[in-house]
Specification:
- With 68 residues, this protein is of the alpha+beta class.
- It has two helices and four strands.
- It has a four-stranded antiparallel sheet with strand order 1-2-3-4, covered by helices on one side.
- The radius of gyration is 12 Å and the shape is globular.
- It starts with a helix and ends with a helix.
């Protein structure tokens, strides 16, 4: 279950993205880390931490994770 801070931040980010006509494809709670993951139609990946802070995830980070 996401934290209150994550839920609020997720709503804010989804609202901001869709107001720019960027579709939000997937919203998922990563049970391993406790982080909420947003994936958009523009290949934007956002990670929301339990405290509500967030960051863009760079594609190179995903490639390094898959390889190592």
């Amino acid at each position: 279950m996401p934290t209150t801070q994550q839920a609020f931040r997720c709503f804010q980010l989804c609202q901001n993205l869709t107001s720019m006509y960027v579709p939000v494809e997937i919203v998922r709670l990563d049970e391993r880390t406790g982080n909420v993951i947003l994936i958009t139609g523009e290949e934007i990946l956002i990670e929301i931490y339990p405290n509500g802070d967030w960051r863009f995830v760079d594609e190179s980070e995903l490639q390094n994770h898959d390889n190592g």
